[in-house]
Design a protein that fits this description.
By secondary structure, the chain is mainly alpha-helical. It has 6 helices and 2 strands; from the N terminus they run αααββααα. It has helices at about 1-5, 15-20, 25-35, 60-70, 85-115, 130, and strands at about 40-45, 50-55. α2 (about 15-20) crosses α3 and α4 crosses α5. InterPro entries: Tscrpt_reg_Rrf2, WH-like_DNA-bd_sf, WH_DNA-bd_sf.
Amino acid sequence: MLLHMAQFEQALTSEVLARSMGTNPAVFRRTMAGLRRAGYVKSDKGHGGGWRLARPLREITLLAVYEALDRPTLFAIGSRRAYANCMIEKNVNAALSETISHAERLILERLGQVTLDQLAPAITKGSFGAHCL
């Protein structure tokens, strides 16, 4: 959404942005709350209000967005705990835990290297956003 928002001069309403994400405005606003607290977006109420970027895309990394969204789980693989005394289960859990921790460190490192401006198309404001939203 932040990349789409950068394509528009005017603020975009929660309704417009939520529709483009396939969700409802209340869910969208809850998601955006963390980004607002982190200072990446701002919202204005009333007529002509809506969401807009508070910083240039070059100042926002994917890691910053991830952290502003309260660091959602990266992997849905979990350890099994059905048999506490099973050595096979313990060994598999240990290997999975170590592997997932290593993968998470690599992903977070890479997310910190990518700024949103690197992901934006090299075109002028307003020239692609309408058909994407």
